[in-house]
Amino acid sequence: MKKLINDPADVVSDALRGMALAHPELRVDHENRVVFRGDAPVRGKVGIVSGGGSGHEPMHGGFVGRGMLDAACAGEVFTSPVPDQMQAATAGVDGGAGVLHIVKNYTGDIMNFEMAAELVAAESGIEVATVVVDDDVAVTDSLYTAGRRGVGTTVLLEKIVGAAAEEGRPLAEVADLAKRVDDAGRSMGMALTSCTVPAAGTPTFELADDEMEIGIGIHGEPGRRRVEVAPAREVAEMLLEPILSDRSFTDGVICFVNGMGGTPLIELYVVYAEVAAILERSGIGVARSLVGPYMTSLEMAGCSVTLLQADDELLRLWDAPVVTPGLRWGA
Amino acid sequence: MGGLSVAVGVDDLTAWLRRFAAVVHERRDELTALDAAIGDADHGSNLDRGMAAVVAVLDDAPPADVAGLLKKTGATLVSKVGGASGPLYGTLFLRMAGAAGDGDLDDAAVARALRAGLDGVVARGKAEPGDKTMVDALGPACDALDAAVEAGEPLSGALAAAAEAAAEGRDATVPMVARKGRASYLGERSAGHADPGATSVTLLVEAAAATLGRS
C-alpha cells in the first residue's frame, strides 16, 4: 500500500485537521468529528445534517456551507459515524426550526442515525426528520433486502434541499422535498480498479487488466458482474440502460457524471459526451449537468452516472447560490 | 441443577470481554478479509477498535456490578465502532444489561441475558434467520444454551454446546445469499463466504465458553 498518510489509524482526524486549516470559514469539532458551517446554528432555519463513512471526499464535509449542509459527521473510512457524532451535529445546527438528517441507505448509517434520532428525541426537544437516499439501480429493491444503496443522487439532493432550507422553509416541507428528489433520481456505477482502505492495507478486490466491474457502490464492495473492459461509449450504455429502464425520464433532467476518485476529468468528459449523446437520441433533454469527482471511493478508478428528473422548482433550487469547499456557484 | 449453578460475576465477565478483545485483535485481518469478500472490508478493524475501547474501560474504570459492566460495554461499542457492528454489538450488550437485574448471574440468568441480547440484535437489525447475518450464529447458540441449562448441564458445558452451535450456524451462512446489510447488495454473488458478523459472534460465544462457569 502506497498512500500519503501518517498512520492508518489517524487518517480521518489528520484529514479533518487539514480541512479545518484550509477552510477557516468552517468550524470543525475534532472530538466529535463533525464539520459545521461557521455560522451554525442559523436562527429560524432548518438544520441540514448528513454524514457517513469517510473516503468519499468531498462528500460530505466538503458540502458544508451556505446553501447546502449545516453539518457533516465523518465516520472512519467507509464506516458510518456513531450516534454521539450525529447528536452533536444535530444539537449544533438546531436554529429552532428542526433538523433534517440525510442518510444514505446502508445498514450501518441507518442504524446509527436511527439511534441518534432516538437519543435526540429522548434528551432534547429538537424535532428531527429523516430522508433515506436509495437511488442505485444496480441493487434489487425488494422487501427482503436492505433496499437500494444511496449513491450519486445524494449530492444533488443535498444541494437542492440545502437551498430550500436556506429559503427558510419549514421542516415538513424540506423533508417532503427531500423525498421527492430521492424519488426522482437514479444512479449506476462502474469500476476499473479497486480502492485500498488504509486500515486494511490491501486492495478490496482484484480486477485483471482487461476487466471492469459493473454495478459497484462507493465502498469497494463488489458489483453485480465483471465484464471485459469496453470503450467509454459502451460503458455509457451499460450504465444508462438500467437507469432508463427503471424510471421514465423526460426533458429537463440534471445529469451527473461522477468520478470515483482515481479517474481523471478528461475521461469523465469522454463519458459525459457519450451519456449526453444517448440522452439526446432518447429524447431526454439535459437541463443542467455536473461532471467531476464529488462522491468518491478513495482512489478507485471508475465513474457513476446519475439522472435526476427535475422541474422548474428543482432547477431554481439547483441554481441557487452555494458556498462550500466542494461545490460553489452563484455567490 | 440446584447447587451446581455457578454465579457469574464482574470478574468472570471481565475475563470474557478481555478474551474476546484479544481474539478479535488476533483475527482482525481475517474478519476484515471476510468482509472484503462480500462487504466493505472494515469488520475486523471496527470491532478491534471497539473492543480496545472496552478493554480501556476495564483497565481504567470498570463498573462494579454485572449490569453496569454490560451496559458500559454496550455504550462503549455504540460510541466507538460505527458501521453496522456498532449498533448491533452495542445493542446486544445493552439488552444483556437490561436482562441481568441486580447482582451476579446464575446459569439460567446467563442464558436469559444472552437471549435478550439476541432479541435486541434482531430488533435493531431487522434480520431473520437465514438472512446471512450474526443472527444465524447467535440464534442457534441461544437455543443450545437454553436447552443445556434446562437439562441441568453445568454452565461451562452448556456454553461449550452453545459455541459448537454458533460455529455450525456460522458455517451454514457460507452458501446463503445475503438479504441484509451491505452483502445483500451483491445478490447471488454473496454466496460462498461465511458472514463476517456470524463469524465474530461465534468468537464471542467461544470466548464465553472458555471463560465463564469455570470458577
Automatic annotation (TrEMBL), chain A:
<dbReference type="InterPro" id="IPR004006">
    <property type="entry name" value="DhaK_dom"/>
</dbReference>
<dbReference type="InterPro" id="IPR050861">
    <property type="entry name" value="Dihydroxyacetone_Kinase"/>
</dbReference>
<dbReference type="GO" id="GO:0047324">
    <property type="term" value="F:phosphoenolpyruvate-glycerone phosphotransferase activity"/>
</dbReference>
<keyword id="KW-0808">Transferase</keyword>
<protein>
    <recommendedName>
        <fullName>phosphoenolpyruvate--glycerone phosphotransferase</fullName>
        <ecNumber>2.7.1.121</ecNumber>
    </recommendedName>
</protein>
<keyword id="KW-0319">Glycerol metabolism</keyword>
<comment type="subunit">
    <text>Homodimer. The dihydroxyacetone kinase complex is composed of a homodimer of DhaM, a homodimer of DhaK and the subunit DhaL.</text>
</comment>
<comment type="pathway">
    <text>Polyol metabolism; glycerol degradation.</text>
</comment>
<keyword id="KW-0418">Kinase</keyword>
<dbReference type="InterPro" id="IPR012736">
    <property type="entry name" value="DhaK_1"/>
</dbReference>
<dbReference type="GO" id="GO:0019563">
    <property type="term" value="P:glycerol catabolic process"/>
</dbReference>
<dbReference type="GO" id="GO:0005829">
    <property type="term" value="C:cytosol"/>
</dbReference>
<dbReference type="Pfam" id="PF02733">
    <property type="entry name" value="Dak1"/>
</dbReference>
<feature type="domain" description="DhaK">
    <location>
        <begin position="7"/>
        <end position="329"/>
    </location>
</feature>
<dbReference type="GO" id="GO:0004371">
    <property type="term" value="F:glycerone kinase activity"/>
</dbReference>
